[in-house]
C-alpha cells in the first residue's frame, strides 16, 4: 500500500502547551498555554499551527461533547500528546470527542466511554498510539468514526466498545468509514471485543461519493461480535497483512473474518491470515473481488452441510463479478473455494487441504460460471472432492476430462514445514508448479493491481514479505514462496544510527 503523506512519521517539537489536572498549581485562569510548573487543567479546544500540547495526569472528566480543533499546516502541524496515557472520560454514560481542523495529530491518549468523532471537512489527521474503550451507546455507532480525507488511524487499541457477545444486534464497530472519506489508512492497530465489526467501510446504502482509497493493513483483529473487516458500498479498498480470528455466527453475522457485500468496487484481500472462525474470506456482492496470497486456516462452522457452497469455506463468492483467487493456502477448512453464481472466477495456484469429511476442495454452483472460469494449477490434498453444479468429482483426471478444467493441478501432500508452519519444504510438489501466462510471467492480476494503483507498489511478495522468485519455470503454489521456505532464521541486519545513553 502507498504511504500516507501525513500522519505516521511526523513528530512533535518541544511542548508549548502544558496540561496536568493533578498538579497543585494547575489553573485555566489567565493561563492560555500553561507551563510545566503552572499547567492548565483542561485541553484548549482551539489550537493554532505549531501547537504542541503535552497532557499529564488525569483522569479528565468531560461533558457529553467536547470539540478539539487543530489549525495546523503541513509545515507546522498541531499535536496533542499524552504522557503516560492520560485518560479522557465522561461524567455521563457516554460522551463524544469531536476532532476538527487539519494537519493535526492526537497521540497517546486513552478515551474511555467516548467516541472519537471526526468532523466533516477534517483532513490530514492522525489518531496514533491511543486507546478507545468502553463506549457503549444504546444504538448503532462506532468507537472511532472517520470523516474526512488523508486520515490515519495508527497503532491504537480499540476494544470493548459495545457488547461483543450480545444476543441482540446493536452494532458498535471499532472503526467506521463512510461517505466522502478518501485516502484513509487504518494500520497497525489492535481491535477486539467490539459489539459490531472491528472495521466497517461504507453502508448497505451509501450516498455518493463512496469511501475510496482505503488501506487496512497489519492490524490484529479478533473476537468482535460480527466480523473483522466488513466492506459495503465503497471503492478501492486494500486489506493486507492483517491477522484476523475468533469470529462466530450471530443472529446478524455468519462469522466471516472478512465479508464483502452491497457491491463495492475493487476490493483487494492480500497476504492476510484469517483463522479460527466460522468462515474465512467471503463476498456476497462485489464488482472486483481479488483474493491473493492469504493463509486461511481452521475454518469450521457448526452443522456445516457437505452440499453447501458457503458453510465453513476458506474463500467463497456469490453475486460477485471479477473474482480472482490466486496463491492462497486454505487448510483445515470445511470447504475450500466456491463460487455460487454465474460469473466466471479465476482459481489458480492455491493449496487446499485438510478439508472436513464430505467437504469439497472446490465448488461451483453453475456450469455457466464454471465453464467460463480459469481453474488450474491448484494442489488438492486428500481425497479429491469437487462439487460442480450438483455433481461431484473425486479425481482430478475425471474432473479435467468432463469439464476441461483443472489443468496443471496435483493431488498430493504439499509437504509443509510442520502442522503449524505452512511454508514449503524442499521437494514439495507445490514448488515451481504455478500457472503463468508465459515463463516467469504470473497471473495477470498482479499487473492489474500495479496498473490500477501506480503508486502503491507491486504485490508480488508472499505472505512472509519475501519477493516471489522463479527458481524454476514458474512460481510456487500457495501463500508462501519457496524462497522463504528455509527454516534457518536469517541473520539480522547490521544496526545503524545507534547512540549510547548513560
TrEMBL record:
Superkingdom of origin: Bacteria
InterPro entries in alphabetical order: PbH1, Pectin_lyas_fold, Pectin_lyase_fold/virulence
Source organism: uncultured bacterium lac193
Protein name: Right handed beta helix domain-containing protein
